[in-house]
Amino acid sequence: MPKKNEAPASFETSLNELEQIVTRLESGELPLEEALNEFERGVQLARQGQSKLQQAEQRVQILLAESEDAPLSPFTPDAE
């Protein structure tokens, strides 16, 4: 398990590691102590990811507030 003073990984790297942890936990083949360690790491990664998402949302809100006259429209992924 990484030490607390390590630099946080990117959101994508953390998400990938979290997905691997979930897969290992769902397999049901880990000894109890190892499963608890994996779960603890997963919770830590989930909290880091949530924090990064909140920071990104705040940045978007700040950017939108800076250009109040910019028109807002619903996002449609097919519109080009």
Topology (SSEs and partners):
Blueprint: H1 11-27, H2 32-66
Helix pairs in contact: 1-2
Percentage beta strand: under 5%
Order of helices and strands: HH
Helical fraction equals 55-70%
Uncertain runs are none
How many strands, what sense, and barrel or not for the largest sheet?
none
Count of alpha/pi helices: 2
| First-to-last CA distance | 44 Å
**CA radius of gyration:** 18 Å
Helix/strand/pairing category: mainly alpha
Number of strands: 0
Task: Tell me what you see in this structure.
The chain has 80 residues and is mostly helical. It has helices at 11-27, 32-66. Helix 1 (11-27) packs antiparallel against helix 2.
Q: Which features would summarize this protein structure in a list?
A:
80 residues; mainly alpha; 65% helix
What's a quick, concise take on this entry?
The chain is mostly helical.
